[in-house]
Amino acid sequence: MKAAFTSLFLLIFGSGFAQPYIPLPVGNARWMEYYYDDAFFPQIVTKNYCMFSVDTATHQLYGRSCRKYEYSYDSVYNANNVFGTYMVFDDTINRKIYLVDSVSERLIYDFSKSVGDTIHFICANNYDPRTFIIDSIISNNVLGINRRHFYLTDSAFPGLKNIWIEGIGSTLGFKYNVRSCQWVLYDTWLRCLQQNNMLLYQNAQSCSYIVGHEDFIKPNESIKIASNPVLNSEIEILNPTAEQIQWQLYSPEGFLLAKGNSLKIQVSQYTSGIFFLQIRSGKSSTVFKILKF
């Protein structure tokens, strides 16, 4: 009886994982990513890129059946504007994702681990090695699909928190798999993931943007923040103009936390850390990096 039960258990849970693995979408998939550049402050430079999975063929590299993913400046696929191509192997059996070239493969995501485990992998954009510890794994519903969210702590930079989502990648964007892999003066986040015009992930009001890889938006320099760092429970916006403002408050991972049009924003419910506040007035847009104690 015990042997029969064991065989049944292995038949059902033979992989050792209780929840089926959700692979990356293949074919007609589009990751829309937003970049905010601190280097040009006070001039705000935003860059919008897309990573496309258009090619449905497999490519044999390093003994792996890989898929081609391409980065483009446009919100619709345009081969003339592709500026980067990646070969990706999604190991659906072992729940790992690799970047592959003609001589090697490099681990960039590992969804096989458990809470407390250590992961050694590389930055998807520059091949630097990284070591992280899994703080927690939570299954959250994302637009109708339960996806496992991995919450990671950087062993070298404990204050930098990161989130991986199974079948999507990082909340920062597919190429920026963890925050410490970003350039020092860049902040990025994944806006949307679509496949065959079906929305799989959304962290923005809109999943479209003006075609063109750089949008130079003149900020409204008259709008200020009364106190930064924020020492109490609210952010106060100083707006000497008569124009109505609209603001959006984002977490360090790029999650939209709140939005509104008032001049005071309650932040007592949030833990200490860095936040991004985008304020729009007329045709101007200004982004503030807010530090809350």
Keywords:
mainly beta; globular; 293 residues; ten-stranded antiparallel sheet; five-stranded antiparallel sheet; 2 domains; Immunoglobulin-like; disordered N terminus
Give the averaged pLDDT, no decimals.
81
Overall structural class, as computed from helix and strand content, comes to mainly beta
Low-confidence stretches: 1-16, 39-44, 210-217
Number of domains: 2
Please outline the major beta sheet.
10 strands, antiparallel
What is the β-strand count? 22
Gap from first CA to last CA: 60 Å
- Along the chain, the helix and strand elements come as HEEEEEEEEEEEEEEEEEEEEEE
Number of helices: 1
Radius of gyration: 21 Å
Helix content: under 10%
> Can you tell me the overall shape?
globular
Strand content: over 45%
3D structure, described in words:
- With 293 residues, the protein is mainly beta.
- It folds into two domains: 25-215, no CATH class; 219-292, Sandwich (Immunoglobulin-like), CATH 2.60.40.
- The protein is built from one helix and 22 strands.
- It has one helix at residues 2-13, and strands spanning 29-37, 44-53, 59-61, 64-72, 82-91, 96-100, 105-110, 118-122, 129-142, 145-154, 161-165, 169-170, 186-195, 198-202, 215-217, 224-225, 234-238, 245-250, 256-260, 264-266, 273-281, 284-292.
- Strands 1, 2, 3, 4, 5, 6, 7, 13, 14 and 15 form a ten-stranded antiparallel sheet that branches. A five-stranded antiparallel sheet has the order 8-9-10-11-12, with no helix packed on it.
- The radius of gyration is 21 Å and the shape is globular.
- Residues 1-16, 39-44 and 210-217 have low confidence and may be disordered.
